[in-house]
């Protein structure tokens, strides 16, 4: 089902941060949200994920108004990984099991435990399975946060800088794995080349608005200059553009 973000505006007190944002995503597309620090990318994700209440706007998944869904139903539709995952004294296994909370009443079922084991294997988390999340490295914690979003089995996944703290192998593993899930995903990324390699659609934000959106053909040196105020060359590796700063 299509995800439709319609006329989202958000303000912190009197400061307008998101200004009438609208866009649509085809089912199964991976969308990269790009832009300078402070452009409003995290605020946009937090608003769609209902962590912030917008001044106006709506989010539809097909005909379902996501803002009107009760929490238990909402988390089955949409999962969100914040830019700064917060660790606690729970170990990795327990933290992941909590990601299945909307599927069980009092105690997890065999299926919930199996799902946790599956994601642990998929993301190579076996070695840290019993470690308290407070003791994890930045990259390990990032992978656990992503695993927890996956285990929620939602139709839509929002990830704020999911490759933060990850080494290049883990960055690629995580993005390949997200792509293989075939879910509608919105990713905030700073690495444009990584985005170009894995994403289907690109949204550039500037001062709380969408400045450019489309497929990889919109990414030109003029657009990069307008957004980031830097000069770049664009080379091609097959039909994938590669950004090279001058
Ligand atoms: N709690 C808050 N109170 C007031 N202003 C805030 C708050 N959180 C964020 N802002 C402001 O909102 C604007 C957008 O912030 P946001 O975190 O969405 O940017 P971003 O595009 O995600 O940046 P980055 O790439 O650095 O993560 C910034 O100017 C920021 O200072
Ligand atoms: Mg951010």
Structure description:
The chain is α/β, with parallel strands linked by helices. The protein has one domain: 3-Layer(aba) Sandwich (Rossmann fold), CATH 3.40.50.300. The strands form three sheets. A six-stranded mixed β-sheet has the order 6-7-8-3-9-10, with helices on both faces. It has a four-stranded antiparallel β-sheet with strand order 2-1-4-5, with helices on one face. Magnesium ion binds next to helix 1.
- Percent helix among the residues? 25-40%
Terminus-to-terminus distance: 41 Å
Strand content: 25-35%
Number of helices: 8
**Unreliably modeled segments:** none
Large-scale geometry? globular
Total beta-strand segments: 12
**CATH architecture name:** 3-Layer(aba) Sandwich
Summarize the model shown.
The chain is of the alpha/beta class and 246 residues long.
Descriptive keywords:
six-stranded mixed sheet, globular, 32% helix, alpha/beta, binds adenosine-5'-triphosphate, 8 helices, single chain, Rossmann fold, binds magnesium ion, 246 residues, 12 strands, four-stranded antiparallel sheet
